[in-house]
Amino acid sequence: MAAPVVSAREVFAEAVKAVLETWPVLQIAVDNGFGGVYSQQKAEWMVDAVQQYFHQNANLEQYEVEDFLADLMNNEFDTVVDDGSLSQVALQVCQLFNQCQQGKLSEVKGQISQLSQKKVSGRAKATQMQTPADQEDEDESEEEEDAVEAMECEGTTERKPSSMPPKEQDATPSPSGDMDEDGWTVVRRKK
């Protein structure tokens, strides 16, 4: 049985997915829910949107792709990308698209595997175990929280709440119902 033939369009879709999955700005936006509860779905949709943008527009320039990506990030994730990575991502996607159009699918697949390895190694670094110093810091912050909680409990005593603060309890409206010129009732202190 022969292996299925992979089209340039399918390879480009994989390439866009690999590029976007290794883009730190997008991953931070997804991990922190900048796009709401559907952040992950928006990131997946973004792959299709970028791919479709390339196939619907001929001869795209890098700045056009940058603008498109910037709009997507702003509209979907309320994120303005100003770390310089936008131009790098746009350039990379443009280059991958051109390689796919030229039939250099094996080169593109090689780049996809490199990006996938980068993604896996990046996640491995992020999930490393805590160092002992990090653990000590965490323990200290828990102790501080417990101390604050204890102080809050010690300072409270049972008091019967009053409907008025103590200063205002002495003040009563005058029996004559004095009103000032704006229609407010004048409240005077007992003597």
From TrEMBL:
Residue ranges with Acidic residues bias: 134-152
GO biological process, any: rRNA processing
InterPro entries for the chain: Pre-rRNA_process_TSR2 (IPR019398)
Signal sequence region: none
Tagged with keyword rRNA processing: yes
Record keywords: rRNA processing
Record keyword Lyase present: no
Segments of this protein annotated with the region Disordered: 116-191
Function, in words: May be involved in 20S pre-rRNA processing.
Family indicated by similarity: Belongs to the TSR2 family.
Name assigned to this protein: Pre-rRNA-processing protein TSR2 homolog
Organism: Albula goreensis
